[in-house]
Amino acid sequence: MLEVKDVSKYYDDLKAVDNLSFSVNKGEIFGLLGVNGAGKTTTFRMIMNLIEPNGGTIKFNGKKIDYDMTDKIGFLTEERSLMTKMTVKEQMLFYGALKSLDKDTILKRLNKLLKRFEIEEYLDRKINTLSKGNQQKVQFISAIINEPKLLILDEPFSGLDPINIELFKSVILELKEKGTSIIFSSHRMDHVELFCEKLVILVKGKAVISGYLKDIKEEYKKKNIIIKGNVKISDLKKIKGVLTVQKRANDIMVVIDDKSYAKDVFNYVKKQDNIEKYEIAEPSLEQIFISKVGEAYGK
Fold first, then answer.
1. How high is the mean pLDDT in each 10-residue block of the chain (299 residues)?
2. Could you say which architecture CATH assigns to the domain 221-281?
3. In this structure, which topology does domain 2-217 adopt according to CATH?
């Protein structure tokens, strides 16, 4: 279990992380979200013990993270950190050695992972000859070659097509099932919703939302109503409690101020012809993210 408790970090007068607390249990995927400059990278670096917090504590399985413990941690950075003139094999032997693995163990795991990621023919290819997507696969392999107990994934799907995103998803879920604690960061809210049971949204280093995703959605007052059928957008906009009406490719999404206004929308819809769908839905994480970040910035 990773426990971040009352952690703060300052750079001169800049408060990069402000009294942040969260925990990630064994076999749990946790979302750490925020716009650029929100404090995510600083938090990752403090967890990795690359920089020291000015206050608070960070512990993994009850112990302060030190150099020896980093052997049990994997980190996929948003910026590629591969040495492009090395071959894939040379790169993994280097990274594996940094994680205290012997050569035989590294090569055995590498061969298995290259096959899993469908790039076994690239073993002796230099990194700079690989496509962006295949470089991302190599970088991901480098983060899990040590079979980490804690894995930090910062924008793991960068540069991947939909087929390879599905491949990455399956590997991430396999790691979760094996008990790896995973911190997941992405600008794609739909990806976060697929994986994360708990999350924190940071704004200027401070948590503006924290908790289980299902609870966050339930507590958020605004709701979506999805309608498919013969309705007029202009009529929907006039209904009390309706905030926005958006025509989409195959339906209309109505955002209401809270669930109590759903009955007024329903009373209008039931009088119309050819209604195929009327559904009250929880807001998307993207809607909540935009709303909360906007509030924090006074928008």
1. 95 92 95 89 92 94 86 87 91 93 96 95 95 93 96 90 93 95 89 89 91 90 93 95 94 94 95 93 89 68
2. 2-Layer Sandwich (3.30)
3. Rossmann fold (3.40.50)
